[in-house]
Specification:
mainly alpha
């Protein structure tokens, strides 16, 4: 259950970093941090599906 919340939070942060600057110019640009977040989310999802975590 806790892993699900972590995945959701990381996914929301990724979406904000990826789409935020397109909606308002005052939103900070995150650069490569956006891609690091999505890689972490994908790894957590795969580990969850495999039952490792």
């Amino acid at each position: 259950m806790m892993l699900t919340w972590i995945i959701v939070i990381l996914l929301v942060l990724w979406l904000l970093g990826f789409l935020g600057p397109r909606f308002t110019s005052s939103f900070p640009s995150t650069g490569n941090a956006v891609h690091i977040l999505i890689v972490i989310v994908i790894i957590l999802v795969v580990l969850n599906l495999l039952g490792v975590i």
